[in-house]
Specification:
The structure holds two protein chains of two kinds. Chain A is an all-alpha fold. In chain A, about 75% of the residues lie in helices and about 0% in strands. The chains are: A mainly alpha, B mainly alpha.
Chain lengths: ~325, ~270
């Protein structure tokens, strides 16, 4: 590891940490923007004065906002996410298994979609402007326009109700054998794959096409290298950085995009947990889950940038 | 403009988009039954009396679809209008004035975009009252960050043109520069973006309503109708797929139109007419 690369990476990570702090302020502020009283809006107009008083004390509303923020941040940094208003349970202990479930779902969606997107992107470049290419761009238009629940319920209707190959509700629990678990999440994984595949594929295609216009590709063509070998040996290595970037952005989207998919398939993940507690106006839970989602999202973006730095040959071999 | 010059894809998109808009505007006159009127049994299949069948409470699905078109399109359009006017004016102003205002606004937008939109919307909606006005404001404000980025980027390029320089030397103020010099020249990329932002607003609103956090009953919107009828799916009743399909159809047709406008304006720039 040489110094300019290390310096760049250190800078990027420091910037990421700064960004995370700013995001935590924003998420905290986002729940304080009401002109009136948060306790009143949580409990509604018909709340009794005693209930209001209790809730204000629980939320620490008698203290100024910045004190509450630092108490909250201090708790988060030491792993204490507070207690849920509705269930009185510790948020961190409820959240951890759900976080793993969400990551499990996103992981398998990534395992399927990333290689598939890269292969299809390569095929689209090899046969560009042909029927495969047209098909892929039509597919991309459809997948940016279709809501997740349309794809989801269509799959349920066909594969779970008409044919009963897969369950319509993806229940998973601890100690479930891996294969049974995988069988349970086939449909939600398929929805997620369909949602991110088109974008990844299109960007892969664009990244390789961009490289294909370079002089060294022309040289390779002139010396008689086959089309696939040109793409594989000359174009792909040079397109790795933008492709990694796209993949990471889509992984970030996967982790966040699971919210709707989890609700469709009643999957016990973080998204479902968040949605339930937004409806119950359980502010501490919403803040904690929101912060975790934002952290994963920003974390994957940092990884994308670092990978971009590491795969850049100009930075690896400084003059 | 000649109708023959419109490619078939864009023509289909225009017709379907126009149809949806027509239905949305005249919903009260078109709908055969009332919004909350219970007309038959639960989840009756489509018949000559109820074309699309009935929903989870025995209400006419077609009538609710028509009212739903109105709610969905109205909220999405209002949110898009807000995000566009706010985002583009702020973006142009940042590009024209530069300095601390530009830096501050750009960094703030970067920060907002570092949080996934849906997550931030959910955080904010957990304390805000669930009204249509709240939805429009939250969706419009969150989406204006994207419009800000685009319009700032476009305006930075235009701002260095000779005619803008001339206007500045003439002593015109910032509002003149923004509305009379930059806006007319930035219009074509922004119009195509308008279509995409509108689709995004429709999808976003539908997702929120599907999660039960958007439009609240008794009002009907397409996302909420998917939520109401989703339990029928496991019994093989496809009622939930009808509003979901309508969202998809609207999104695809607006997309086709936006694509065509983008291609038309880029080919204009290339001088091919």
């Amino acid at each position: 590891m040489n110094s300019p690369v290390a310096k760049l990476i250190a800078q990027r990570i420091a910037l990421g940490i700064l960004l995370l702090l700013a995001v935590s302020v924003l998420i905290f502020a986002g729940t304080q923007i009401l002109p009136g009283d948060v306790a009143q809006s949580i409990l509604g107009q018909s709340a009794t004065p005693t209930a209001l008083e209790n809730l204000r004390r629980d939320l620490g509303l008698d203290q100024p906002a910045y004190v509450r923020y630092f108490t909250w941040l201090g708790g988060v940094l030491t792993g204490d996410l507070g207690t849920a208003l509705t269930t009185r349970q510790d948020i961190a202990t409820t959240l951890m298994p759900r976080l793993w479930n969400t990551l499990f779902l996103a992981f398998w969606a990534a395992v399927v979609s990333v290689p598939l997107a890269i292969i299809l992107g390569l095929l689209a470049v090899r046969y560009r402007n042909g029927p495969i290419d047209k098909l892929i761009s039509g597919f991309a238009l459809a997948s940016t326009s279709l809501p997740e629940f349309f794809i989801g319920y269509l799959l349920i209707l066909f594969f779970a109700v008409k044919h009963q190959w897969f369950p319509s509700i993806s229940t998973i629990y601890d100690g479930m054998p891996l294969l049974t678990k995988l069988h349970a999440i086939v449909l939600p994984v398929t929805v997620l794959v369909l949602v991110v595949l088109a974008h990844m594929m299109r960007m892969t295609r664009a990244a390789i096409l961009n490289v294909m216009q370079s002089a060294y590709i022309e040289t390779a063509e002139l010396k008689g290298v086959g089309q696939f070998d040109i793409i594989r040996k000359h174009a792909l290595p040079n397109a790795v950085a933008p492709i990694i970037n796209v993949v990471m952005l889509n992984l970030a989207f996967l982790v966040v995009g699971v919210v709707v998919v989890e609700v469709i398939f009643v999957y016990p993940g973080m998204g479902q947990y968040l949605v339930d507690h937004v409806a119950k106006r359980d502010v501490p839970v919403v803040q904690a889950v929101g912060l975790i989602f934002a952290t994963v999202y920003i974390g994957l973006n940092i990884v994308a940038d670092v990978a971009g730095i590491l795969t850049n040959p100009r930075l690896r071999h400084p003059k | 403009m000649n109708l023959k010059h419109i490619p078939p894809g864009a023509l289909i998109g225009l017709v379907i988009t126009g149809l949806f808009l027509f239905v949305a505007v005249f919903a009260q006159w078109i709908a055969p039954h009332g919004l909350g009127e219970i007309v038959g049994g639960v989840w009756e299949p489509g018949s000559s009396k109820y074309l699309l069948g009935t929903d989870n409470l025995g209400r006419d699905l077609l009538s609710r679809m028509i009212y739903g078109a109105q709610t969905t399109i109205l909220i999405a359009a209002a949110a898009t209008a807000l995000s566009f006017s706010l985002g583009s004016i702020m973006g142009f102003a940042a590009a024209v004035t530069g300095g601390w205002f530009d830096t501050l606004a750009s960094r703030f937008v970067d920060l907002m975009m570092a949080i996934p939109t849906l997550i931030f919307a959910l955080v904010v909606l957990s304390v805000l009252p669930s009204t249509i006005l709240t939805l429009i404001l939250v969706m419009g404000l969150l989406d204006s960050t994207r419009v800000f980025r685009l319009s700032r980027a476009v305006a930075v390029d235009i701002n260095v043109m000779d005619y803008v320089e001339a206007a500045k030397l003439r002593g015109e103020g910032t509002p003149w520069i923004i509305f009379r010099e930059i806006l007319p020249n930035a219009l074509s990329p922004l119009v195509s973006e308008l279509g995409l932002r509108f689709i995004y607003a429709v999808l976003f609103l539908s997702a929120l309503s599907f999660l039960g956090l958007g439009v609240q009953p008794p009002a009907a919107d397409w996302g909420g109708m998917v939520k109401e009828n989703k339990d029928g799916i496991v019994f093989g009743i496809p009622a939930a797929l009808i509003p979901a399909g309508a969202i998809a159809a609207l999104a695809i047709s607006v997309n086709l139109v936006a694509d065509w406008i983008l291609n038309r304006t880029t080919s204009l720039k290339g001088g091919r007419g």
